[in-house]
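ESCALATION

Customer reports they have been waiting on this structure for their group meeting. Please prioritize. Original submission:
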Amino acid sequence: MKRVIPEYASLEDIIQDAIDKEKDAEQFYAEASELAQATEIRDFLLNMAEMEKGHAEMLARKLESIRSDKTVMDGILSSFNDEPETDTE
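Update from on-call: job pushed to the front of the queue and completed.
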């Protein structure tokens, strides 16, 4: 089965979508662990949930870094867009 990749407007959109998917996977494994009767299976599923949580946290840090870098770059670039003052006297 071929995966359909949505069109994204930015890297930020891609990472946010990935975060959402990791959180969904975390919830899936956590809920599945509640249904598991065998301790070994429950522990495995809880471990998977923790891994997905870690992935979501890593992606969230990356997203914050990208947004922070963008804010800094926008500030730098905006300083070049100001019209220079001219003395008309």
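Sent to customer with the following note: The two ends are 72 Å apart (CA to CA).
Escalation resolved.
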